[in-house]
Amino acid sequence: MIALLEAQGIKVRQPVVLDHSREYSTPDWKSDGMHAFCPRDVLLAVGRTIIETPMSLRSRQYESLAYRPILREYMDSGARWISAPRPELKESGYNRRDRSLLAVLEEEPVFDAANCLRIGSDILFLVSDSGNLSGAKWLQTTLGERYRIHPCENIYKSTHIDTTIMALRPGLLLANPARVSEKTIPDVLSKWDVILAPEPVDTGFLGYPFSSPWISMNVLSISPDLVIVEQSQTELIHILEKRGITCAPLPWRQGRSLGGGFHCATLDVRRTGNLESYRL
């Protein structure tokens, strides 16, 4: 994947290697770490601002340290680097009794960066087990009136938005038919053309599956007419190509094992173009 990105003229940066097995603690709990495979879960890039988000899992509270050297360089070159208030993540902030309800309560702002999907000056915010309304409110007050945060409720309970809704190019949306219907598509996208993702090809997993087979639709849009797609998803590739989108198929057998596809495992911090509204 790095070779493909660099061939497109994209500069690729990688995090430093940390020992995520080390235990850390707060006055209320102890945990070891997870990994640093998915920068899009941890960091939210909006314009010239990069935000370390208040993540929902205790095991991911120091994951952003793997990216600190890069963040310092971005700050020195003019980026606005901020960190959300670190959540306490006390036991009282979680719902562990009723799995039909969301796992994070409204005790404090909590969200993963991957709860958010940037679409120009609009940002979809999935309210789920990994992000609450308090987090959406904090993000809106932090970014100000230039951006509009759209809390999306009752769409997908589990975690992140990028196996549910993916913007392919202005006016064209890839949606998960198991989670999204005409009634639940966010209003800001109501006039977009919707492609329903086909049934995924399950690439399997080792140990515990941190993602569902719908990691298949976690494509990475390089440009309005080029996306990276997992090579086993031949039906999805065919559908996208019929819509004039060139697909670059690559192997990605670790997606379910590590909980991330091409979109999760990358974070575009700098793209050409101007801030626009893509409401149709």
From TrEMBL:
The active site is at 112, 160, 264 (amidino-cysteine intermediate). InterPro entries: AmidinoTrfase. GO terms for biological process: creatine biosynthetic process. It is an enzyme of class 2 (transferase). One of its GO terms (molecular function) is scyllo-inosamine-4-phosphate amidinotransferase activity. It comes from the Bacteria. Signal peptide: none annotated. Its EC number is 2.1.4.1, 2.1.4.2. Keywords: Transferase. Belongs to the amidinotransferase family. This is Glycine amidinotransferase/scyllo-inosamine-4-phosphate amidinotransferase 1. It comes from Actinomadura luteofluorescens.
